[in-house]
Amino acid sequence: MPAGKEDDARAFYGKLLGMFEIEKPAELRKRGGCWFQSGIVQVHLGVEPEFRPARKAHPALRCADYDRLTARLKSAGMEVIDDSTIPGVRRCHISDPFGNRIELIHP
Questions:
Q1: 3: how many CB neighbours lie within 10 A of its CB?
Q2: Which pLDDT does position 107 carry in this prediction?
Q3: What is the pLDDT of residues 5-24, one digit of tens each?
Q4: E strands within 4-100?
Q5: CB 94, CB 80: distance < 8 Å
Q6: In terms of Cα–Cα distance, which of 97, 93, 63, 61 is closest to 80?
Q7: Which candidate, 85, 13, 90, 98, places its Cα nearest to that of 55?
Q8: 71: Cβ contacts below 8 Å, ≥ 6 apart
Q9: Are strands 20-22 and 34-38 parallel, antiparallel or unpaired?
Q10: What CATH code is assigned to 6-105?
């Protein structure tokens, strides 16, 4: 993530995706960024001085309430791109505020 954009990360990962921010270890806090958790999954966002978003490589997150989450994202004006290329799998792609690709999968 770009430097100084922690509040944007909190709004997206915390409020929109419903993840909880977890405290970074003291030694890592001075580097910026933030960490989030939902269940056993953690997402660690680190600051990169010359940040470039990951548009191909991406995490895939299983969503217990896929329909509710994707509806909430659409209501917030997010682009939700459905992907039916894997037979029998409901999934879509979104981008975080920094342009990083994220896949959402229905269990």
A1: 12
A2: 82
A3: 999 999 999 999 999 999 99
A4: 20-22, 34-38, 41-45, 60-62, 81-83, 91-95
A5: yes
A6: 93
A7: 98
A8: none
A9: antiparallel
A10: 3.10.180.10
